[in-house]
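Example record

Each entry pairs one chain with its bound ligand, pyridoxal-5'-phosphate.
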Amino acid sequence: MNRLRENLEEVMERIAGACARAGRKEDEVMLVAVTKTVGAELVRKLYELGIREIGENRVQEALRKAEFVGELEGVRWHMVGHLQRNKVRHALRLFSLIHSVDSTRLIEALQKEAEKRELHLPVLVEVNVSGEQSKFGIAPEALDEVLNSISSSENLKLRGLMTMAPLVDDPEKTRPIFSTLRKLRNKYAEKGYDLPELSMGMTQDFEVAVEEGATMVRIGTALFRGLLGWCS
Ligand SMILES: *Cc1c(COP(=O)(O)O)cnc(C)c1O
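Structure tokens for the complex follow.
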């Protein structure tokens, strides 16, 4: 618990430092604790330390974990991984924000399920800025179509963009990826789309992401250092 608290404090301090360097306010950046590598017990401990935003990348595992954790007042589950259309029904039992919308077919499936559940589901569009083949997310050229499709879906609420930077040895190398996402957001905001959120930055690069305008950072590894046995 102490170690978890220390890790959390360190991450919060580094976010604060990045905010200060960029002239931003700390409360503009939300920490989403990505718990995909840890069990329900650590989710509960994070909750006790004040964390309310929990990220997972697999639907079934998240549902199982959530069941173990039990009702925690005010917790919001974030889907940060690739979402398959056949998992949408289950996903909407749990998640309050989908970070990873990456096709018009997924949008159709989400709209249908959100309508059935009488929800207005907030979503982000994942953009593959780096163009890596291994990455999910739409090409920047497809943004027009995808944003338009979400906007015309009555039960979906467009909230912003998300991206993942490539793995790098020096976090500074991720800066162009994050600044490109910010510029794309600005461009489409000017066209009238509502895009307040930029979900970008993980353990390797969250400070750079915050300097470039992230409003949500998705962090796992840095929170759980020293808690997962000798190898971490
Ligand atoms: C695992 C994961 C994260 C967190 O990554 P860390 O390097 O452990 O901080 C963030 N975003 C997505 C989409 C992930 O799958």
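The mean pLDDT is 96.
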